[in-house]
Design a protein that fits this description.
alpha+beta; Aldehyde Oxidoreductase, domain 3; 3 helices; 8 strands; elongated
Length: 147
């Protein structure tokens, strides 16, 4: 991958994620704006009732990295992206741990915000990563795609 390639860092990992690594990957002297999204494991689910989460595990399909690349390439083609990075965690995570970190740098802030939003939204909806939540009441739930 060359420095002219805007896809600077992509991955599905079973090791802790680093915001600093992602930010460093999207640094570019031609970028006037950098937008970052960090998804963390929370202590309750996102439903209206907000059930207490006691354990959470992410699983990825073997094609997840290829799908992540496809999503990233599309974002880079649709926006004036100077640099883009996206990493997602798999395995068992504790409350407070980073589940996903994405960042985009563009010439201007509005473009960076829009591209970052599209990147995390498309990752969530299209990359085959599943979340298995266990709740304090003993119930469990599989959730369609990522953080």
């Amino acid at each position: 991958m060359t420095r002219s390639d805007p896809l600077r860092l992509l991955g599905i990992r079973d090791t802790p994620l680093s915001v600093d690594e992602v930010l460093a990957a999207v640094g570019d002297p031609a970028a006037g704006g950098t937008a970052l999204f960090v998804g963390t494991v929370r202590d309750h689910d996102g439903h209206e009732q907000g059930a207490a989460v006691t354990a959470l595990e992410y699983s990825a399909h073997p094609t997840a990295e290829a799908e992540l690349r496809r999503v990233a390439e599309r974002v880079a083609a649709d926006f004036p992206v100077r640099a883009l990075a996206a990493v997602h965690r798999v395995g068992t995570l504790a409350v407070g741990e980073l589940a996903v970190v994405v960042a985009v740098s563009c010439p201007h802030r509005a473009e960076a915000f829009a591209a970052c939003r599209r990147l995390i939204d498309d990752l969530k909806h299209e990359v085959p990563i599943w979340k298995h939540q266990s709740f304090a009441d003993g119930s469990e739930e599989w959730v369609g795609a990522c953080a």
